[in-house]
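Pinned message: reference record for Histone deacetylase
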Amino acid sequence: MLKIAHHPFFCHPLPEGHRFPMLKYELIPQQLIRRGIAREENFFEPEILNEEIVLLTHSNEYWNKLKSLSLSYHEERRIGFPLSERLVKRELRICRGTIDSALYAIDYGVSFNSAGGTHHAGSDWGEGFCLLNDQAIAANYLIDSQISNSILIIDLDVHQGNGTAEIFADNDAVFTFSIHGEKNFPFRKEKSDLDVASPDGIEDEEYQDILVENLEKAICLSSPDMIFYQAGVDVLSTDKLGKLSLSPDGCKKRDYIVLNKCKALGLPVQISMGGGYSAHIKDIVDAHCNTYLIANELFF
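Predicted structure (tokens):
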């Protein structure tokens, strides 16, 4: 059964000016049901994550600042959202959703968090609309619980997952693989286990060739028993921040390449949605829904 962590409260803690990029999280479940990709019973609402699990990944000092709402002006500005108690609770639910989604993926082959992909949050910082790193937290939870021994994180958001790379820089149990825009945010990159920097304007065929070659390399180097996939759709040519030139079909093919490989190898895959900043919300929602469509067709 396809299981999807859903966050119906998602937009409510945010000021008006920040809501457009987050609107997709309300629209995606509606569109999935409308297109017959999912039904109401496929969705679940996560609980709030316990702080001891947060501390497997993030430092005590940073977590204490978050929960006491005592980030400095510069730390808050780096995140990009005004900090609030409701925002922190929302982030804790997102992270719990990714853990639950990972456990469902082990049972069913694939599972989604309809939010998440907060890959800019490092061990002791938030950045780029990311407070806590949901896939890093879930990966550390699986390792700490001895549910998994070797994890591969595939990050195909147009922005490098700098926080994820920093968190796992000295952790041999988690292999980080990122294909991202060479000249895009963050401008000071961290070092993933496998980084591929793409030039501006790269199109479907060249991108797919790069992905096929390096996905094979990442799997060979990591020998994973679990995969996390950050499936940002800011690779689209319509994206205001992306600088790449993938078509909707090219983005869909990207997802097929990743998910078909997971299916062929019998590797469970947890998917978090990541970025998408096209001018028209329909382009964002449709591209994300295609990821669900591919997963549903391959695994169910």
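Pinned by admin. Summary line: The chain has a mean pLDDT of 94.
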